[in-house]
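Figure caption, in words: inputs first, then the predicted bound structure.
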Amino acid sequence: MAFVLAATGSAVGLGNIWKFPYITGENGGGAFVLVYLLCIAVVGIPIMMAEVMIGRRGGRSPINSMRILAERDRLSSRWKWLAGVGVLASFLILSFYSVIGGWAVSYVGTAASGQLSGQSAEVIGAIFSGLLGDPGKLLIWHSLFMALTMLVVARGLRGGLERAVTILMPALFVLLLLLVGYAMTTGHFGQAASFLFRPDFSSLTTEAVLVALGHAFFTLSLGMGVMMAYGSYLNKNVSIAKTSLLVSLMDTGVALLAGLAIFPIVFANGLEPGAGPGLIFQTLPLAFGQMPLGSLFGTLFFVLLVFAAWTSAISLLEPLVEWLEEQKGMNRLVSTLGAGSLCWLLGIASILSLNEWSGFAPLGMFAAFEGKTVFDLLDYLTANILLPLGGLLVAVFVGWFMARQALENELSLRGPWFGLWYGVLRYVTPVAVAIVFIYNLV
Ligand code: PHE
Ligand code: NA
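Bound structure (phenylalanine present):
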């Protein structure tokens, strides 16, 4: 139970409610969603099982679990750097995740003050642009979000968080259902459902396939060692397959509900599905502005969104802090302050790329990065490169280097299930990731 709660707390976050809808909108809907679901099933779930298994067998922080497993099977100790890739990725992700978490914090106040009620799409859009255009405000909210994250990591309050997840996740689910219910009254629910679920492959680009694959890793918190860290809490008698499946299903369910809540509002108000990262902040406030008790529900929703983002952010900071403690001998407070403030500092670059530096594309000389701001680059580098790379290495390590007997003992799957998982992990996962990678990089 502790594992399921911690893993769900990490998985369900901004990736589901903020990122999934906007990348779905940018990448044309149905075909993208289908590829994403396929990536969850064929790449995400098998890798989650592999990561959880490494964590449970190693019983330490990710880098040390990898080192222990490699030593036990007389493999190169260089495998531990696989978890190193993950620690770097989680540091980079947290820097901009906290900025978006800050947006959510600021909307708690916006909703509570009643500013949203009865407003038009133009006014709601202007409120959002006002926030993005003000680096000072963004900095305050980013700092607050990062401080909240550091507070929990420094004190190791995991037990309290797990208890909170049991209440707040179901509440988030209920509010999303309420929003979907509202969305059904807009008269554009059918259009949204067909946008999300009727695939039109003619509009699917290869870049979209890479984004879908990267997002499968991002949303399930994979490729970074987070699930390894949490797997070390899992008892020997618990089924890794069942718990991984449960966490993945909950994560996917929240993302699809968010999509079903948002797109009817997009179509009903003539907004642009490809509006980008601001999509949920330009749509959901409209719904809260129009429904009865909207200020109350809106406030509650953004509180829950902040909470979901917070539990994910904690899991992003944890691996780096643990590594500093184990490797550099720092105490928890010092390592949290050190890692957290570096992350906070890097977050400022993402803040500026939303306003002052919005025209600055540091790697713009390469065609692939044309027009990408610092924020875009961090997102691209982590979700589309580092996470799939981390996942690929996990699949190769577990599928090709660990002893098969050990895997059978860990998973204790009956019937054809072990063979299916093993085959997928050995062949399908690495090949799928490699193809998408090579295609996009070359
Ligand atoms: N899975 C989280 C989300 O969807 C983000 C995250 C990624 C958290 C990687 C931890 C590690 O919001
Ligand atoms: Na997620």
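The CA atoms of residues 12 and 251 lie 6 Å apart.
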